[in-house]
Amino acid sequence: MPFATLDDLRAACRALPHGNEQAAAAATARQNNLTKPPGSLGLLEDLAIWLARWQGRERPRLDRVSIVVFAGNHGIAARGVSAFPPEVTAQMVANYAAGGAAINKLAAFAGAKLDVVPITLDRPTADFTTAPAMSAEEFLKAFDIGFRAVEPGTDLFAFGEMGIANTTVASALCAALLGGGGERWVGRGTGVDDAGLVRKREVVDAGIARHRGILGDPLAVAVALGGRELAAMAGAALAARIHRVPVLLDGFVASAAVLPLARLAPGVLDHCRAAHASAETAHGALLDALGMTPLLHLGMRLGEATGAAAAMLLVRAALACHNGMATFADAGVAEKI
Amino acid sequence: MPFATLDDLRAACRALPHGNEQAAAAATARQNNLTKPPGSLGLLEDLAIWLARWQGRERPRLDRVSIVVFAGNHGIAARGVSAFPPEVTAQMVANYAAGGAAINKLAAFAGAKLDVVPITLDRPTADFTTAPAMSAEEFLKAFDIGFRAVEPGTDLFAFGEMGIANTTVASALCAALLGGGGERWVGRGTGVDDAGLVRKREVVDAGIARHRGILGDPLAVAVALGGRELAAMAGAALAARIHRVPVLLDGFVASAAVLPLARLAPGVLDHCRAAHASAETAHGALLDALGMTPLLHLGMRLGEATGAAAAMLLVRAALACHNGMATFADAGVAEKI
Question: How many CB atoms lie within 10 A of CB B213?
């Protein structure tokens, strides 16, 4: 296990490698010579330069693109906070294995390898309204599973999640670390009704009240109010940073999972871009808090890395232009007057 | 030529085939049975249903996807309204033929056949500040070129343009048909400086003043203030509607090109979706006037159908989910409580 204690993890977040600004500058210069008005490909130019920065290559590549979906179960599911019963977590894991879920189709279309990692689904976290969701050891074990899921040399990475009740967990992390309570951070998730929405808010507020003493410590919050699949996503995000692998952040739960890292030290998520703004009410506010601008606004709210996979298409489009277009000189096209 | 007179064209816009609501309803029902919370794929669900409606199939296909870029030259280019010299139109057409432009890369990645149709580049339209840009006959000839560019049985179509000075033309069409003058509708196009921006506004206002008498007639406006590549795009849009081919509208110039059709009769563009909101200032207001919500917001402003090609990736992603995902029953996943 790379991090034996939470303090080891805290220390790692203070000594991270940075992007390659020389490669980014070379990629920027290349963009300005391609046969188009400078800047006219908008975010597609930014994405190519972002890849160049983190891959350390003027002309990046997307040969090894990887998506990992982590699954976990949650004690608070028993509190009626989801529109679906908790057995759906394992049923969807089986659906991924059979190739029938949205992420199977989107990952294949985006040219990404898909791995699904269920984490002790038969052992949900504790109900965080009555106890810490996990012990520090359980958290670190799940974090490590995510950390090991990122292979060095990956060109682009994304993670996603499946876990009935985990939008409530994500809301609890946001409320704990950003303030505002259930009122501010709870949305309908997979589609709870009005009564379910009230229950979700109450559960979040009860969790915050129960763990009032540790709210100033981002990792303690991730342990007490988080979940195994969220811990694994945080582990994957940190591993990607250590290996300088660019990451597309999926939706609300994935973004909430890495919030504790962002609160540990500034810049920990500099290698990440928000793939999309989901329809989950609080996702926009969470991305604002993370200082991230989403690439897509498609009203998606499925999780399982589907938003990230959709954004991968844009990244591939960006790279096709960046690596493949002719320069003004190549093509004999007159430049700007 | 399918339309011998402008009146023939007007009549055609009043007798158009509609989408297949039965196929759309079947596709909607299918979406609600797939293994995801209903609605959770957001716009990806809408896009699949849109394809179903216009293709008339519960499970649409994207085997024949086509992009056509029309190119034209403009008398008003001599007025210093562009950051690039007018010879760039022909140079970019050569670049398309050589495969070096952004649209070459994006069309290939989107799995679309790309055709480029230059329209009498050696004969620019007249300067609309002093004369009508075209005669009705010239307009109809260009319209016909676009009309014939859409093959019946195409599964998804997009058109784009290349024509130095054509954002000024597009602004003139908007100002003529929607009001507000150059101030409201002129932006920087390929990147004119402040003085160029002032010239663009003056040229638009002079054009409106010169043709004051015909501003109530959308087709007369397209003749007097338009351009050949814009006429061709309008022709392609109408042909697509007649053949029930769904269309992704590209950026500001492509959207302005079809505005006269939209003003002829309500619903003419029901088969079109706006691919993106470009960085060209007035595009958002134009899409509002067309009653369209853009799929992407990437800050692109290149034209040549690049925004439409990017959106095609989303349409393909939508269809991969729609046609490929398992249903709740197939996968043995519990439905919503």
Answer: 9
DSSP string, A49-104: HHHHHHHT-SS---SSEEEEEEE---GGGGGS-SSS-TTHHHHHHHHHHHT-SHHH
Closest CA to B70 of B132, B142, B127: B142
The Cα of B8 is separated from the nearest Cα of chain A by a number of Å equal to 38
- Tell me the C-alpha distance between A168 and A82, whole Å: 8
Residues in chain A with CB shorter than 8 Å from the CB of B326 are 95, 98-101
Complex-level ipTM:
0.97
- A55 Cβ contact list (under 8 Å, min separation 6): A20, A23, A61, A155, A244, A246
Active site residue A304: yes
- The two tokens of residue B328 are 């709740």
How far is it, in rounded angstroms, from Cα A332 to Cα B253? Answer: 25
A1 pLDDT above the threshold of 90: no
Q: What is the pLDDT of residues B179-212, one digit of tens each?
A: 999 999 999 999 999 999 999 999 999 999 999 9
Residue A173 has pLDDT above 90, yes or no: yes
The per-residue pLDDT for range B221-262, each reduced to its tens digit, is 999 999 999 999 999 999 999 999 999 999 999 999 999 999
pTM, full prediction: 0.98
d(CA A204, CA A55): 39
Of residues A207, A172, A143, the one with CA closest to residue A282:
A172
Q: B175-185 burial, b if ≥16 CB within 10 A, otherwise e?
A: bbbbeebbebb
**Dist CA B154 CA B11 (whole Å):** 24
Q: Give the CA angle between residues B260, B191, A294 to the nearest 5°.
A: 85
B295 and chain A in contact, CB less than 8 A: yes
